[in-house]
């Protein structure tokens, strides 16, 4: 298995609520910045660590692609920095995790290492940027996806994970057309290479359905969104079980899509009644 895979962006149940990241290395993410370990500012409030309150919605999840061991042989240092960044992120110290990941990427560029290691580190850095709401996240997602396409081609697990991450970031920024265009190209590749029941494929289909019902959607878009989510949720129930976080998110998305479809159909029926009523 690759040791440097891309990180999966999170899942979202609704337009504004990111959810926890699924991944080869699980990392939490929230659009709100959290307090750094060294942050003593008054805005930190009464909480000692200002971590996300328990009632907040679960953050989306990122997938992190895996890649081979570092070419420079400095495996211990590399692993230590990677685990430190992951641990800080899991503890919701995103500012500190960002500093570690920026230093890690700088070290790899300075000493020279494999392109897969660089892409993996950029993917983790993009996760930190996205968690903190930094604008650099989207461009880095795009760069990582392009890098994996160049390195492995379009039908490779790491490439498909990074495509999901890029599309998910576009979805979060409400760039729905761009996200749909990317997913229409990459979902067929995921079906061929990974299979219909792979979690990466399921998450890509989920993001695609979200871009349909969250937008100013037509009736056809809403019908496609509901059908896609129904099929994806059935597969997730069968493969992952009803208690899996992805299955629960898909159920929530399906409720939202059905509600949007019902509202649009009711509005269309009302318009027909008004149009056909005698003057």
Notable characteristics:
279 residues; mainly alpha; two-stranded antiparallel sheet; 9 helices; 2 strands; elongated
What does this entry look like structurally?
The chain is mainly alpha-helical. It has nine helices and two strands. A two-stranded antiparallel ribbon has the order 1-2. A hairpin with a 2-residue loop joins strand 1 and strand 2. The protein is elongated.
Structural class: mainly alpha
Helix content: 55-70%
Distance between the termini: 70 Å
Number of strands: 2
- Cα shape: elongated
Strand content: under 5%
Largest sheet: 2 strands, antiparallel
Radius of gyration: 20 Å
Short description:
The chain has 279 residues and is mainly alpha-helical.
Architecture blueprint of SSEs:
Layout: E1 12-14, E2 17-18, H1 75-90, H2 94-111, H3 115-131, H4 136-152, H5 157-172, H6 176-193, H7 199-213, H8 219-239, H9 245-276
Antiparallel strand pairs: 1-2
Helix pairs in contact: 1-2, 2-3, 3-4, 4-5, 5-6, 5-7, 6-7, 7-8, 7-9, 8-9
